[in-house]
């Protein structure tokens, strides 16, 4: 599975340019400053600062690999039929099954970090909606910039992954982090 992820990254992504790396570090620095201001004003605790920075890094890396470093296509590509990929999986397309599972895993860390960023349990449907919003941004960006395949299936799988990550993190948060 790790080998498959690596091959996908190589096939769809180019290396970051010097300008992109500079932009990344500027945004990282700004986010650190903002989080430290929030920390100094007692709006967040240090634990949230760390979780927030991890979420920022994750979001930036995902956008980099799914949108910004992809090689543009000549035309906009899209598939508007929901669950089309599962129809193909049922017909025996194992590679599409792997892709669906990878899309499920893609936003798992996003959902996993949410309870730690907000320092409270997050309801599963809120994580699902946040995952859907982030995934919609990714898919729409891919469509507009011609840098990938816009499809509802990816949004469904990404959202479910965010929801599952959040459900698991809620259990960990409840047991180990926040004991009332």
What does this entry look like structurally?
With 180 residues, the protein is mainly alpha-helical. It has one domain (2-177). The chain is 76% helix and 3% strand. It has a two-stranded parallel ribbon.
The number of helical elements comes to 8
What ranges have pLDDT less than 50 throughout 5 or more consecutive residues?
Answer: none
- What is the helix fraction of residues, given as a range? over 70%
The proportion of residues in beta strands is under 5%
Biggest sheet, strands in spatial order? Answer: 1-2
What is the ordering of alpha helices and beta strands? Answer: HHHEHHHHEH
Q: What's the number of extended β-strand segments? A: 2
Total number of domains: 1
Average pLDDT for all residues? 90
Question: What is the general shape?
Answer: globular
The structure class reads mainly alpha
Search tags:
76% helix, mainly alpha, 8 helices, globular, single chain, two-stranded parallel sheet
């Amino acid at each position: 599975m790790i080998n498959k992820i690596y091959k996908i990254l190589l096939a769809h992504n180019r290396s970051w340019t010097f300008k992109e790396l500079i932009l990344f570090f500027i945004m990282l620095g700004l986010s650190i400053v903002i989080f430290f201001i929030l920390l100094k004003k007692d709006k967040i605790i240090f634990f949230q600062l760390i979780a927030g920075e991890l979420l920022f890094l994750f979001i930036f890396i995902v956008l980099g690999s799914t949108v910004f470093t992809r090689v543009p296509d000549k035309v906009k590509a899209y598939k508007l039929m929901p669950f089309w990929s599962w129809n193909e999986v049922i017909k025996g397309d194992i590679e599409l099954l792997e892709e669906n599972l990878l899309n499920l895993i893609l936003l798992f860390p996003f959902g996993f970090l949410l309870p730690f960023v907000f320092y409270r349990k997050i309801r599963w449907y809120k994580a699902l909606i946040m995952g859907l919003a982030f995934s919609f941004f990714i898919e729409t960006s891919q469509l507009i910039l011609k840098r990938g395949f816009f499809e509802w299936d990816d949004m469904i799988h990404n959202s479910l992954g965010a929801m599952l990550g959040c459900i698991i993190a809620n259990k960990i948060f409840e047991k180990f982090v926040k004991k009332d």
